[in-house]
Amino acid sequence: MNNFLSTKNIPVRERLIFAMDLPSVAAAEEMIDRLGDSVLFYKLGLQMFMTGGYFQLVEKLQKLGKKIFVDLKFFDVPETVKNAVEQLQSRGVTFATVHGNDDIMRAAAAAKGSTKILAVTVLTSLDKGDMEDLGFKCDVAELVLSRARRALALGCDGVISSGLEARKLREGVDDKLIVITPGIRPASNTAVKDDQKRVVTVQDAFINGADYIVVGRPIRAAADPKAAAEEIQRQIAEVFKQ
Ligand code: C5P
After folding, report:
1. Domain range enclosing 211
2. Which atom of ligand 1 is nearest to the CA of 217?
3. 10-55 confidence digits (pLDDT tens)
4. Closest residue CA from atom 13 of ligand 1
5. 0.85 surpassed by pTM
């Protein structure tokens, strides 16, 4: 079986993105302190946004020299999405997510500055039945591929993809596509019993072609989050050492 190990020039320790899904700014700040230099890249999503302290955290992470992924899945008329992305330009953000059709992706890409835009292809929580309910009569895997190709053609930079779909994206889309894979469960991690169904290990995610992995609960729910993050860093280093 082909090995799709990423050849992009990404520092190995930046390939781990921690999903900071926490209920308050105080909890997030405590986690940042606990994780120290075991995590260099943070994903801030809707839960953090609703705490009201989102940009306070963005600034704190920036001062600490961390990289930031704004996962707010912008979805609105193209002009509004363009204006929202433009607002990020002064924030020094590495990645932001958008959802939507060609015009929305084009508008986001036009305003991105140095931020890279990741497109939602098909939410992994939707299956064929859900897609049919929404009026899409097509193969979900084909739709993911076609949307990833369009995202690149329209000026976006990458997609979020389950570790199982990553391989198909690598086989079917230009290699410059950035692929970010959530749903990671380290083989040794027993702290988490949860809702993620399509899980892969750290090794499998990268062998299937992920450029980055997003990990939340296996770090957050561990008795020692820093040790859990360092163990994942060790596994990533091991995969990339050849
Ligand atoms: O806790 P866990 O490791 O499952 O965290 C996964 C993170 O990735 C969460 O922030 C979740 O919102 C995000 N995510 C996901 N599946 C997707 C897209 C994003 O789990 N398809």
Report:
1. 12-239
2. 1
3. 999 999 999 999 999 999 999 999 999 999 999 999 999 999 999 9
4. 182
5. yes
